[in-house]
Specification:
This protein has about 160 residues and is an alpha+beta fold. About 15% of the residues lie in helices and about 35% in strands. Strand 6 and strand 7 form a beta hairpin. The chain is globular, with a radius of gyration of 16 Å.
Length: about 160
């Protein structure tokens, strides 16, 4: 890791530990069980600016760290750990993204609230997993509380609020 990148990540970690971490608590659910709008906390916005992550920036992720390169992936309501497959702003390959999965609607919703780069501490972010052409749509054999998706990767997009 270049010296300037190491100094930037060190500064970011200090900022994150001083400002605390965000949590997905308090998300209001819509009648279909999908999460409603949620603001991105100011400390996450500051952190993303420091990381040179702008709204709309995206990188590929393995959706579930326990199901890498699977033809189909099974996701359950609750916490998720994803892994970056590409650099994302100043976040390097293999950075972990932590968030929450909701499977109640027709499509899976994944919101990321924290990033954990290798050799660093966790810090807050706001990102969502997306794929075009209904590829986050659950397969028909999915049961309540879980979703089976065709494929194990998606793009993580930086957001300034969850809609």
């Amino acid at each position: 890791m270049p010296t300037t990148k190491a100094l930037l990540l060190t500064s970011i970690v200090l900022l994150a530990t001083a400002s605390g971490c965000t949590t997905p608590g308090g998300v209001v659910l819509r009648p279909d069980g999908t999460p409603g709008p949620q603001e991105c906390p100011e400390e996450a916005k500051r952190m993303m600016r420091a990381l040179k992550l702008r709204v709309g920036d995206a990188a590929w992720v393995d959706l579930d760290a326990n199901q890498l390169d699977a033809r189909q992936v099974t996701l359950y309501d609750g916490p998720i750990e994803s892994i970056l497959k590409d650099d994302f702003g100043t976040l390097e390959l293999t950075t972990r993204l932590y968030g929450q999965v909701w499977t109640s609607g027709a499509q899976v919703v994944i919101r990321y609230y924290e990033a954990h780069p290798p050799d660093s501490e966790k810090f807050p972010i706001c990102a969502v997993a997306r794929l075009s052409r209904d590829q986050m749509r659950k397969l028909p054999e999915s049961k309540p509380g879980m979703a089976i998706l065709d494929g194990s990767t998606a793009a993580a997009y930086v957001v300034d609020a969850f809609r």
